[in-house]
């Protein structure tokens, strides 16, 4: 065997060995156990965030929050809350939740807090409740009761009442915030051009809904997060803090009006995502 031929065969063998070593290294990196990389974390599917608006608002009040959640790759559903009666609104939300697969973070604003408290009871998919300038009623309490429990609400003087007939023939009253009072009462920290549109598109709530008595609340069994709006003229901040403490909720504050999802969507998103990160 000549020297050149032997050298070539040696080089070929070394090349094959090097290639095999590289391939083996790649295979280990791709398929080896997660424990091999102590800094690695495996992130599963994110929970669906369900947003429930309250009185004098609609689902567009969540628009900026929805954009931020979607940017962070959360599935989002913004529910059109009927605002007709607490029991009926809760039943409607229960049906919406039943159509969602996997874990849910359920967030409510204002009267929407009463609705999520009722609707989430018994739903094993709801892993966290988030209350944003919202009601957390105990069984038998109403939104109207809680708003009057502490001084500070000026909502009553800002309302306009319109008699209406329910589908079953019973009489009730639709409540609106007067257009000339809307900015100051509902969203004093939002640009007036925006609040002028919000006043026109507001959804009325019935007095029956605000007086509806809560069922056994879900916050007794599901972890809760509360954002207190300290400049709220609808639900006194003292009432919000009282309800948060009673529910043993994770609580934070924002210097914001009642329309906190519009004026501070970043803070609202932060609280919702904090709750979502607790979901396993």
UniProtKB/TrEMBL annotation:
What is the protein name for this chain? Alpha/beta hydrolase
UniProt keyword GTP-binding present: no
Please name the SUPFAM superfamilies in this protein's record: alpha/beta-Hydrolases (SSF53474)
**Gene3D superfamilies per UniProt:** alpha/beta hydrolase
Molecular function GO labels: hydrolase activity
Family matches, as InterPro entries: AB_hydrolase_1, AB_hydrolase_fold, Sec-Metab_Biosynth_Hydrolase
Organism field: Streptomyces finlayi
What positions does the domain AB hydrolase-1 occupy? 49-269
Cleavable signal peptide = 1-36
List UniProt keywords, sorted A-Z: Hydrolase, Signal
**PANTHER family, A to Z:** AB HYDROLASE-1 DOMAIN-CONTAINING PROTEIN-RELATED, ESTERASE_LIPASE_THIOESTERASE DOMAIN-CONTAINING PROTEIN
Q: Which superkingdom? A: Bacteria
Pfam families documented for this protein: Abhydrolase_6 (PF12697)
Indicate whether Hydrolase appears among the record's keywords: yes
């Amino acid at each position: 065997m000549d020297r050149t031929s032997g050298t070539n065969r040696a080089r070929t063998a070394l090349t094959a060995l090097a290639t095999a070593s590289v391939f083996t290294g790649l295979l280990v990196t791709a398929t080896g156990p997660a424990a091999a990389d102590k800094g690695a974390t495996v992130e599963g599917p994110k929970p669906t965030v369900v947003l429930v608006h309250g009185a004098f608002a609609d689902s567009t009040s969540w628009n900026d929050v929805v954009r931020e959640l979607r940017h962070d790759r959360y599935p989002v559903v913004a529910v059109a809350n009927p605002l007709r009666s607490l029991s009926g609104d809760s039943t409607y939300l229960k049906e919406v939740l039943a159509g969602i697969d996997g874990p849910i973070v359920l967030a409510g604003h204002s009267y929407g807090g009463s609705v999520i408290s009722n609707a989430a009871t018994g739903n094993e998919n709801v892993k966290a409740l988030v209350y944003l300038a919202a009601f957390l009623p105990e069984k038998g309490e109403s939104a109207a009761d809680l708003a009057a429990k502490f001084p500070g609400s000026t909502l009553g003087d800002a309302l306009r009442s319109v008699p209406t007939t329910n589908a079953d023939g019973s009489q009730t009253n639709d409540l609106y915030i007067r257009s000339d009072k809307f900015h100051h009462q509902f969203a004093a920290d939002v640009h007036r051009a925006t609040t002028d549109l919000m006043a026109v598109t507001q959804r009325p709530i019935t007095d029956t809904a605000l007086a509806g008595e809560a069922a056994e609340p879900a916050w007794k069994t599901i972890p809760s997060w509360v954002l207190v709006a300290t400049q709220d003229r609808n639900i006194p901040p003292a009432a919000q803090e009282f309800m948060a403490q009673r529910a043993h909720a994770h609580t934070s504050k924002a210097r914001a009006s009642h329309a906190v999802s519009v004026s501070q969507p970043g803070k609202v998103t932060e609280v919702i995502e904090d709750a979502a990160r607790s979901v396993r």
